[in-house]
Amino acid sequence: MKKVNDLRGQAAVFRSAGADSLSLCGRLRTWLHSRERGQAIVEFAFVIPILLLVLLAIFELGIFLLNYQTLTQAVNQGGVRIQQLSGLPVSSGGTSDPCADIATAVIGSAGNLGTTGNNGIQLTLTVGSNTPAGPSPAASFSCGNLASAVQAGGGGTSIPVIVTGTYPCMALTYGFNFAANGCQMKVTVQELMQ
Question: Which sequence spans correspond to the domains of the chain?
Answer without folding.
Answer: 44-193
